[in-house]
């Protein structure tokens, strides 16, 4: 194995030693990534390098000085000696960069998910295979195979052994009427007019004493034997059997998604709660970005009122106001008017510590959640350390939407709960 192969092998080992995805989501630095690139730290593996032998620089203990002589003149040191400059520059770190599609695939594998987003908005209509048919069309598109098969079916259905039926006309005291009744009873598709014509043309008939004698002496030849011997012959083609081939029109649908992220920014949402919201919502954003062709994100902050903010402000902002969660859902309803549910997949994710104005959850939030069409509504309750908060919002939602496939409610008490919360949210959505 050469040096180049060694180097490639070390690089592979380095990528394999990147921080585990679960560990990264729960404890890693999520802020180093952006919407299009997820940067996962690599546990450093030092690559091999050449070091030159230093013995050719004179060796140890060589020179003109005597033991105890001063080596060189004292030099003034740069800086004031207080050590402020030491360690100011951060050490270099290596990262494994994955796009949201790879992140989503790995998270699917980790959680055992198989979310297959449906496209909604039609962006293009294209002609597919010539599998559709119509009663009219250009002669060049006539489906002759179908026309011939229909004619052949008709010929087989109308075919009968003419020689065999003719013998029935030779039975004593039988004429076309008796022969017709006998043929129909035996499911022989002969017409009365054909029998009458054949009876007129019959010369010097040899009489059978009875029809039983005729059937015992004569064998009826099956249709398939005649076709194999003489071919299909003239196949009757009819205009009503004509059909014309047309290409299927295939609709190409774009998989669009809009995600509305809602966060309580009231005074009770301390930093540790905000960090749990960021650690839960950020991987969800990456996941949905990787699953859809186009993903739009709207960030709504609220205390007693609600307003739209930029993503970089969403996780850090804090106010001193009270809490009225319905204000955020009212704003979300207005925002989503620009994203018709017929054309967009829609997710509404909210997070807070469960506190809300008395009566607001039951009187306003729950009706709004029912009214806002979405693939999924989710509420993430943050309770660091498992401390019981004074809020009842999450409990009321659980009671109201206990068996719903469109509402997920989960509680996060620390980083170790984050992945379970994400799994709860992503496995709640009804595929239909």
Summarize the structure.
The protein has helices at 3-16, 21-27, 100-111, 144-158, 162-168, 176-185, 192-201, 211-217, 223-230, 271-291, 311-314, 326-336, 360-371, 393-400, 418-426; strands at residues 38-41, 95-98, 121-127, 132-134, 244-246, 249-254, 256-264, 294-302, 306-309, 345-352, 376-382, 407-412.
How would you describe this structure to a colleague?
With 432 residues, the protein is of the alpha/beta class. The protein has three domains: 1-49 and 91-98, no CATH class; 139-246, no CATH class; 253-426, von Willebrand factor, type A domain (Rossmann fold), CATH 3.40.50. It has helices at 3-16, 21-27, 100-111, 144-158, 162-168, 176-185, 192-201, 211-217, 223-230, 271-291, 311-314, 326-336, 360-371, 393-400, 418-426; strands spanning 38-41, 95-98, 121-127, 132-134, 244-246, 249-254, 256-264, 294-302, 306-309, 345-352, 376-382, 407-412. It has a six-stranded mixed β-sheet with strand order 9-8-7-10-11-12, with helices on both faces. The longest helix is centred in the middle third of the chain and has 21 residues, at 271-291. InterPro entries: UPF0229 (IPR006698), vWFA_dom_sf (IPR036465). It comes from Halobacterium bonnevillei.
Distance between the termini: 54 Å
Broad CATH class of the largest domain: Alpha Beta
- Secondary-structure element order, N to C: HHEEHEEHHHHHHEEEHEEHHEHEHEH
CATH topology of the largest domain: Rossmann fold
Poorly predicted segments = 77-92
Instruction: Report helical residue fraction.
Output: 25-40%
Structural class: alpha/beta
β-sheet strand percentage: 15-25%
Q: At the fourth CATH level, what is the homologous superfamily of the largest domain?
A: von Willebrand factor, type A domain
Gyration radius over CA: 42 Å
Question: How many runs of DSSP E, i.e. beta strands?
Answer: 12
Major sheet details: 6 strands, mixed
* Shape summary: elongated
Order of strands, main sheet, comes to: 9-8-7-10-11-12
Number of domains: 3
- Count helical runs: 15
The overall average pLDDT, rounded, is 81
Specify the CATH architecture of the largest domain. Answer: 3-Layer(aba) Sandwich
